[in-house]
């Protein structure tokens, strides 16, 4: 079962982002169709994002950014540190410095942050 989710209108449909801990990933669905996901691994007090993918049929709608924002907001709310092994998450954090505090200071250089 998925946990809390966010729903927003997107070009050409309604996008819903939800955590699916049983699958170790966040998913974004557009009008009920799986459009993309962000894989993660959890550890004590941390979450490591390892891969993000959006189906090419849904590209250009900002869905990967919505996945990242929801996942990072959830990590922040839970007090978890973030390890952005996924290049998309690294780039997203670099462009949105309000999330930099989630990456441990002593590991930021590992992620070029």
UniProtKB/TrEMBL annotation:
Pfam families: Acetyltransf_CG. Residues 18-104 form the N-acetyltransferase domain. It comes from the Bacteria. Residues 1-24 are annotated as: Disordered. This is N-acetyltransferase.
